[in-house]
């Protein structure tokens, strides 16, 4: 959960005041189980963040517990007369179990669980806002709740991509999730999958082309996504305006995003010691906020005093950071700096690698396309 703790959960630093009026708040009576431990920081950070932006006339409590069904609910004026969102333990167990089955590394598994939980929670928060704020809706409430979740998550396309997986038509999940699980009255699976992706992509088509690419969003649909996103965003902002302390999303341009699969080439040399290397391969990067990490795999050769040496390797990409159009990351003994080009579908720059037994690094250039 490294990326998660460094970006999203930074929001959790403020502690939600129990039983404050007019706020989303984590229940003080969460069951003492592993799922409560998993969702607690997520619920606290989301509640804190939404509370900073929207005023509610009365509290909405968020809890989890056994429901005998794999689902999540918003229950208006529940037993204790408090509006309550319930994330059923059965749904959390289902999501966690399925993610375990994907055999992801710890970081990816953390992101997958965070994304799915976030989406389900925000969807139910959407229902609760509609109810508690008595928002007038023209369309289906289920669509509006999905839109609220996608709207809030649209600033983090990687989380939205993972969340969309819940309804991926090509995903074994459809067999795993029994009919009805979080889908009664909700749109059909594939429809919701493409809706979430469309709105995520539509938020910034040039910068989010990788979303369409990675998710096989049909080109025909992709063309309508910017309009769909704008309509959904303005609708929600207009509905929330009377209750807003500030808009949920700022109006700054979305930050560049390095996420996706890239093919790269690089070449470098060390000048005097007659060492030169070249390689090509793939890097897979995942960005949250301005930070990213990932994996790389390359094939290549180094020429050491005219003798070729295998330069094939694979490993982790760490310490990735995006600032404006510039990026920087570390892989193996090399530090890469560069910038995004061509609608962010290409990046290029310079690289510096430490050389064993020498204090003089190799330097060179690299390029990647996704
Ligand atoms: Zn719903």
* Overall spatial form: elongated
Give the % helix. Answer: 25-40%
- N- to C-terminal separation? 25 Å
Strand content: 25-35%
Summarize the main sheet. Answer: 8 strands, antiparallel, barrel
Biggest sheet: strands side by side, in what order? 5-6-7-9-10-11-12-13
Mean pLDDT reading: 85
The unique ligands bound to this protein are: zinc ion
Structural class: alpha+beta
Low-confidence stretches: 1-19, 172-181
Radius of gyration: 23 Å
Number of strands: 13
What is the string of helix and strand elements? HEHEEEHHHHHHHHEEEEEEEEE
Our count of helices gives 10
How many structural domains are formed by the residues? Answer: 2
Structural account:
- This protein has 370 residues and is an alpha+beta fold.
- The protein folds into two domains: 2-243, no CATH class; 260-369, Lipocalin (Beta Barrel).
- It has ten helices and 13 strands.
- Strands 5-6-7-9-10-11-12-13 form an eight-stranded antiparallel barrel. The chain has a four-stranded mixed sheet with strand order 1-2-4-3.
- The radius of gyration is 23 Å and the shape is elongated.
- The two termini are 25 Å apart.
- Mean pLDDT is 85; it is low at 1-19 and 172-181.
- The chain binds zinc ion.
- Residues 123, 127, 142, 145, 186 line the site of zinc ion.
List keywords for this structure.
4-stranded mixed β-sheet, Lipocalin, binds zinc ion, 370 residues, 36% helix, single chain, 8-stranded antiparallel β-barrel, alpha+beta, elongated, disordered N terminus
